[in-house]
Each structure stands twice: as C-alpha cells, then as structure tokens.
Amino acid sequence: MLSSAVFASATPAVATADEFADVAFFTRSVLEWRLLSFEHDASGINPVLGNPTSVLSYKPLVSAKQAFGVSVSSPDAWSIDAGLSLGGNFASRLNDRDFAAGQVLMRETASETRPAFSFGADARADLPLVRFDSGVTLGAYAHASFGRTELTSYGAQCLAACAGASTIPNSVAVMSHQMNEYSLAAGIGARLPLSEGYMLEMSAGGGVVGLDIADSHLLRKDLGSMPNIRYSLHGLQVESLARLVMQPTQTSELSVSLGADAAFMTGTVQYAPNTASPPPALPAHATSLRVNVAFGWKSFF
Fold first, then answer.
1. Alpha carbon of residue 130 to chain centroid
2. Which of 89, 88, 4, 103 is nearest to 53 (CA)?
C-alpha cells in the first residue's frame, strides 16, 4: 500500500504544450483460450421442454492471432493504440445438450470444430492522471473492440442419453456459427517502473458487450434457408490486463502480457428467421470466459 507521504507528493500527469507525439508500429502474437456457452428457453411455448432447452458450449476455443497496428503517444502522458488482428481457432469441441422439463437430459453430443477464420479490430486510449515521485503513474483508459469468428463443426458423437441415437461421421458438417462480437469498456490503470528499461503495466475495468450469432443447423432443413437460427445478445463484461514492457533500445519495446475477461449476456434467439411465418423469439443468454497470452514488439518511427 502506498504511504500517505507518497500520496502527498503526487502531481497531475498532464502533457505540456511542447511535448510532441511519438508514433510507433506494433505487432503482437496472441494465444487465446476461451469457454463460450449460449442457450435458450423454449419451455414457455412447450411445457414438455426444460429451461434451458438447449445448451451449446465450445469446450474450449483455442485460437492464435496476429495483431498489428499503430500507437501514438506523448512523452509520459496519453497514448492511443489501434490495430487489426487475423487468425483462427485450431482446437475445439462443440457440445450440444438438450433438456426436457425438470432438467432431464434428453441428449448430449459432441462435434469436432475444425480450424476456422477470425478477424478483429481494437482501439485503446490511456490517460495518466497522477504521477508519484516513486515513478508510479495512475490513470484511466477506454477500450473498444470488434471481432468476427466463423466456426464449423463436424460429426456428432453421443455422450449421454444415447438410447436410439446414431453417430454422424466426422466427414459431415453439422453446424456452423458466424459470430460478431463488440465491446466498449473503461477502467483504471497503473504503470510501475521495476528497473531501468523495465515497466509493469496493469489495468482493470468493465463495460458493455454484444454478441450476434448466425447459427446454421446444417441438417435441419425444416427451419428454412441458412442461417436458420439467429441469436442477439447484450450484457456486461469485466476485463483485466497485466503487461511487462522491456526497452532493449531507445526506439523499440518488447512486451509479454496476460489478459482475461468474463461476460454475461441476455437476449433472444429466433428460429427459422427466413421463413414466411417464423415462431416467436425465445429468451436466451450466453456466458464467456477468456484468457490470453501475448508477445509484442513495438518500433518507434
């Protein structure tokens, strides 16, 4: 805990007019691990069904991404990073569980999710507010992101309640998801000098998140054209980030970071949206837990 004497020596961290902005190019290699689950409740229109009626879970989504972008900053004051990322998942399994009233499991299957495409855009602004004589800086940040992921799962192997169930071979595509995710968050951050050329950056915050899923049950021809199910979900998210920054030269930085976020979203799911008379929309919700490790390099112009 910082002492009162340290707080007494705090000064506002405000850029002066003669400070010039630095521009840098950055790239980051990101390895991400994520648990994502979304479900809906159809018990209101059919009491034979459970709540939830169907639960789809990726266990887990493991993906690799390469991010690149531009960073603009003024000495010891504000900074803005904006970038794009490309990548895809390379390991996952999709579990599908269906429930009857009383949460009796009707069927649980697992499908293989194969390598697929992802794209993202990200922007973050940091503004130091107070600087202490020890070199520690406290501030605030704002963070906006957008991501698109396309996933296709193959085959279906029954895991539970398998009476009368048949196995679908892994050569058959059974389900695909095109997911658009967007978030806006704000929070607090700190920069702690460790030794010459080393800095620890930490931040934590929260905000709003949205997730739109175009779900294609590829073997359900009774639901109309694809995508034959659409989820629209919105909710709250918390996030945190810790980054160790090393400066091997005056014009470059290396970094390693650990990030995490968790979200809970509610909304609706619409079955057969492309038919002439779609059924009423059903309540739905989703949960997400994500952890990532990133290795970065920044070069100043």
1. 30
2. 103
DSSP codes joined into one string, 132-189: -TTS-EEEEEEEEEEEEEEEEEEEEEEEES-TT--PEEEEEEEEEEEEEEEEEEEEEE
Beta pairing class for 104-113 and 118-131: unpaired
Q: Give the closest residue to 296 by CA, choosing from 24, 110, 80.
A: 24
For residue 212, the SS3 value is strand
From the CB of residue 144, how many other CB atoms can be counted at a distance below 10 Å? 16
Residue of 203, 208, 209, 207 lying closest to 240 (CA atoms)? 203
Compute the distance between CA of residue 6 and CA of residue 190 in angstroms, rounded to an integer.
15
191-241 pLDDT, tens digit each? 999 988 899 999 999 999 999 999 999 999 999 999 999 999 999 999 999
Q: pTM of the full predicted structure? A: 0.90
Pair 94, 116: CB distance under 8 Å: no
